[in-house]
Amino acid sequence: MGKLFAKLGWTGMIAGAAVLVYAQRRAEKTGRDMGAVLANLPGELKQTQAELQQEVKEAVEVGRKAATEREAEFDRELAGANSGISPMSDFLV
């Protein structure tokens, strides 16, 4: 039973440290007092979630655009290298 309480204690300390680090970084980012960030922690977490979702959407869009451009470039390279000889004939028996 003592080990269980020790593990719970360590878990609580780690979670508390994580909350403090989050609040400190959020306070630096927003220019507000760390106490104000901690007082409004649920709202801060929702705001952070919304910001992360927006960043992910933007990253996905950039990735899709890059993939589309690379695919078009690849298609152009294949079309330019077409000599009328199929590379598959070497593999057919």
Order of helices and strands: HHH
Any low-confidence stretches, pLDDT <50, length ≥5?
none
Class from helix and strand fractions: mainly alpha
Strand content: under 5%
Query: How far apart are the termini?
Result: 71 Å
Compute the average pLDDT.
Answer: 84
How would you describe the shape?
Answer: elongated
Number of strands: 0
Estimated helix fraction: over 70%
Number of domains: 2
Q: How is the topology of this model organized?
A:
Layout: H1 2-30, H2 34-39, H3 41-80
What does this structure look like?
By secondary structure, this protein is mostly helical. Helix content is 81%, strand content 0%. The protein has three helices and no strands. The longest helix has 40 residues, at 41-80. The protein is elongated and about 70 Å long.
